[in-house]
Sequence to fold (376 residues):
Amino acid sequence: MLINRVFGFLVIISIIIAIFTGKVSVISVEAVTAAGEGVKKVFGLIGILTLWLGVAKIAERSGLLKIITGVLHPLVGWLFPTIPKGHPAMGAILMNLTANMFGFGSAATPFGLKAMEELQRLNRNRYSASEAMCTFLVINATSITFMPSTIIALRINAGSANPMEIVGTTFFASCVSTCVAITADYCCRVYYRRRGRI
Amino acid sequence: MQYRFLSTVGNWFIPLFLLAVFLHGTYKRVPLFDTFVEGAREGFFLAIKLLPYVVGIYVAVEIFRGSGSMEFLFAPIQSLLEFLGLPGDILPLMVVRLMSGAAALGLTSDLLDKFGPDSFAGRLASTLDGCTDTVLYIMALYFASVGIKDPRYSLPVGIAAALSGFVASVIICKMVFS
Fold:
């Protein structure tokens, strides 16, 4: 898996280069600090996940999620032909994508993880990503950005005369990356299906 | 104007969504608190399950950033970028953007301070940071959460899409801002 190679590469290269540039002492400090930061990040996630998974459960049990899914299914259903209509996976995917687009980052992760859980139920091979998972993750990872609120805040802090002027360019670039993601995903799906059959 | 509109939408979306969920739950006679607790219980364990993945990625990205490896490895590509009339400093931002949102935000902030938010480099950095999400981090985390070992074609597709977003950022910024 690519992530193993990236991980190994980053750690090995960093240490070797630090030895040559005389920054070895930095490595130990950075490693420990970063580990702490990671734990902080996860602790932040605990509250968010607990809250939203609780709310999602109510929406699921009352049938609200199913209603939302039914209404929005025509919009994104064509991207996920392997998900049966009205399946809860679709609801979670929709909630995740909506939250992402409008920059409610905190609600996006819980629904994203919930979507993965539901998709895993539909998955035939427990250890290998299903087509729907691949499609969901490439769209999620490149999601269209209407409002990059954190960056706007950064620009305001840096004293920008017009902090908003990057909204249009960001929207355009994120649309390109999402379109490429959807197209490339579709091509790979078709290619792997054909190869699978032969 | 647009910002105000969208941040208003943001402020209203979550409360209204919560209200809708609770009203509909009451209407359907769902035991609200019991159901909430039932779903919320998963939250803690899910977060703890993700801990090693998050820490691993954070450590790798931070020592990579702190060791000065980027200045060292990217120098040739950076001179190529400069030759094309682009600020070389945006290359580390692109690489880090794929792995860590927090680290990328740090780099963007540095670039805004160094070049000014209204310079070409500042605008380009802002666009680059917003144009895609952390592909490697998200995939590692989401697949890990359900125990998927083989991501199949998703990782290369995600990275290719992110790269096309970077190229699109450069092109649109060149067209709009210079």
Summary: Chain A has a mean pLDDT of 88. Chain A touches chain B through 107 residues (CB under 8 Å).
